[in-house]
TrEMBL record:
It is found in: Cell membrane. Residues 256-276 are annotated as: Disordered. GO terms for cellular component: plasma membrane. It is a single-pass type I membrane protein. In the C-terminal section; belongs to the protein kinase superfamily. Ser/Thr protein kinase family. PANTHER family: OS07G0107800 PROTEIN-RELATED, OS09G0352000 PROTEIN. This is Protein kinase domain-containing protein. The keyword Signal applies. Pfam families: PK_Tyr_Ser-Thr. Its main location: membrane. Residues 1-244 form the Protein kinase domain. The keyword Ribonucleoprotein does not apply. GO terms for molecular function: ATP binding; protein kinase activity.
Amino acid sequence: MRSESSSHGLDQFLAEVQNLTKVHHKNLVSLVGYCLDKYHLALVYEYMSQGSLCDNLRGKNSVAETLNWGTRVRLVLEAAQGLDYLHRECNLPMVHRDVKTSNILLGRNLQAKIADFGLSKTFLSDSQTHISASAAGTAGYIDPEYYHTGRLTESSDVYSFGVGLLEVATGELPILSGQGHIVLRVKQKIATGDINSVTDARLGGAYEISSMWKVVETALMCTADDAAQRPTMETVVVQLKECLALEEARLKGSGARASPRSDVADLVPASGPLVR
């Protein structure tokens, strides 16, 4: 639904909807149509039955099992592909403005798609998590350079995506009371050289070490204080493909495949693709 605080009128609404109809990618939530009912303006999107990546990492939505490492890497790779498309390839390149794990939605077959893009000034899906009606982003994900300068660029999305990568690796929220921001927490832990001190305990150690290291290192590059030192989403996609290949090689070497939600104890004899 349109945010009541939005200053956008009907003409602007229809113009922005027209722009969104030109945005098509397998890793972006598809716009089905819109609703115009007197004072109520709404967008209608495809239904993503498996909820958000955030909820799946936290065990919400009646999710009892943990997403395994291979599935986590595949999901963030798919999300990265959608974001890269927004930045470089669509007819109207755009900055998402509010990249976070709750805006990465999962379909019936656990395919990840980016949501809530294009109209974030007009439509706020969760106004309580936004800093203000005019500011872009959610606490914990906001690019510190954007926060200080007010300049919103593709690198701001890259920073937010990097925070999401650290969530996927650690299973932790971006901000924990009394423990600071996730970027600082991870930097302190990896200073010991032990990647296991960083990773989500629910994974049960079932991951390829090099794959995990590479994801964390990519995330820290994305969250560099200086925006000029951050990679592009195109580069992030390449890095995550390598991370996924490393994990797939581990599974293939073990002669087993993991179900989308499992730990090492749940490995079953391989039959078909390693990661779906």
